[in-house]
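Morning run. Coffee first, then this:
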Amino acid sequence: MSTAPHILITRPIGQHQPFVEQLQALGLSVSHLPCLEIEPLFDTQLDNDPAGNFDSILFTSVNAVRQAHRQRPLPWPGLAVYAIGSATAASLEGLGQALALLPDSPYSSESFLHQMGARTPGRLLLVKGCGGRGLLGPGLQKLGWHVGSAEVYRRRLPDISAEQVTQLLQQQAPDLISITSNESLQNLVTLTAEHLPRLRELPLVVNSARAAILARELGFSQPALIAIPPGDQGQLACIRHWLQS
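And here it is:
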């Protein structure tokens, strides 16, 4: 069995391999327990060219970009396109979509609304998943924007049995856990219920202070390591620091 530090990652299937390779390059061994499943949805707002009804588009996540692109291939001309975070911006640019504005750290709803306070309001389509914090629509409306919404995916608890979870965790016990969202953390607790006394003793790497607070509320004893900026590069920086210490 490997003696390298072992990290458990919780990303959806199909979205984990590049991060696995970067972790392995740091000398860690990696196991993968997907704690979210992304289910595509087809929103009628995208059936017709969004430029017919809106002048601006905001993508709230990489998953929003991927699922919208499946329904209506990007780039979308004639629109001012925005992204909440740096990974979302990179995903759009990788599909040839120019951005009207680069997102600001800490890549949150609050930081985006602050940026948009200096823009002239118009008609904006919010491309997102079901649920979420619910700050963007009302916040933009307060700034004078007319806001529509296209929900192009939903997040679900993966169908993974307790036996599969036990087998994974017994193959090699993790020393560290990577979490990418509050919902992933909540689902981790659900999926690993039989193993929580041990897992709650481990450090977590999370993408926001909100997730760190949730981890404490869910009984994790160590202060969570918060990625700055949120996403792969911030998480890798946290993990390098953890390895050195």
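The mean pLDDT is 94. Good start to the day.
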